[in-house]
Amino acid sequence: MVSRRYDHLMRRNRSEAVGLVVGAAADAAVGDPQRYHPVAGFGTAVSRVERLTYTDSRPVGAAFAVGWIGAAATAGALARRAGWLGTAAATFTALGGTSLCTVGEQIADALDAGDIEEARRLVSGLVGRDPNLLDESGICRAAVESIAENTSDAAVAPLFWGAVAGAPGLLGYRAANTLDAMIGYRSERYLRFGWAAARIDDGANLVPARLTALIAAVVSGRPGDAWRAVRRDAAKHPSPNAGVVEAAFAGALGIELGGRTIYAHGTEERPTLGDGHAPTAADLRAAVVLSRRVQAAAAALAVGGRWWMG
């Protein structure tokens, strides 16, 4: 009996390792679909239910977040029954690193062509800042910071949770991160209702963010500079996770990030991260290259980890 269960777990975990490979390869090849993306559908459903159930309350917000994350993890458990194909679909759904890098390159192209309005339009899809207030340096800084943070959120973290828990981990994490992006703000509306979503996302990213920083330090070829920036500057950032990866990217790229940041909900004075000049379009391209290297290394580690669990 024990032997049969062990064999079943071994086959399932190795099947999920194959699914991680296929899903990551599919994301690298085609990126996010422009229409009918499952995450977009999830977000639409969340918005509709929020309008019906919103209450300015932490307990209600916590129940809202836990319910949606649980539903997504259950969908992952059902996908796992389809074998490696189900895990591949969950992996492709959860990953967003390729599209992130594509937008980064498009912003750099627009800036090199002198089309700052197009660059503003593109960067508005990555950050919550008012793009009309950003000059070329501000656009580059916003894009590099987003690429750094989302290399963790949209690539390393889903792969990490896929390695730990398979398809339920992949979709459960993606739900938590999407909820944080939708309601995890310190605005008047979401300060209490979105509190649990923000805290769950922080917890889910504690290990992946530091793994992202470690991988970035190694693959950049400048581990000393990256870790110096992390040790000195990361704790100054208001986010326990974004500061780690942004500092690592700043150190690895030899640039300075942070500073005055204007959001829809107000202005924040962010600490500076790293040493060097303000990011340029060339630095944005370098951030894209670094992100792709980190994503490839994380995929290899996740697949190897899930296979080893088998």
UniProtKB/TrEMBL annotation:
GO terms for biological process: cobalamin biosynthetic process. HAMAP family: CobD_CbiB (MF_00024). InterPro entries: Cobalamin_biosynth_CobD/CbiB. It is a multi-pass membrane protein. Keywords: Cell membrane, Cobalamin biosynthesis, Membrane, Transmembrane, Transmembrane helix. Converts cobyric acid to cobinamide by the addition of aminopropanol on the F carboxylic group. Belongs to the CobD/CbiB family. Pathway: Cofactor biosynthesis; adenosylcobalamin biosynthesis. This is Cobalamin biosynthesis protein CobD. GO terms for molecular function: ABC-type vitamin B12 transporter activity; threonine-phosphate decarboxylase activity. It comes from the Bacteria. NCBIfam families: cobal_cbiB, PRK01209.1-4. It is found in: Cell membrane.
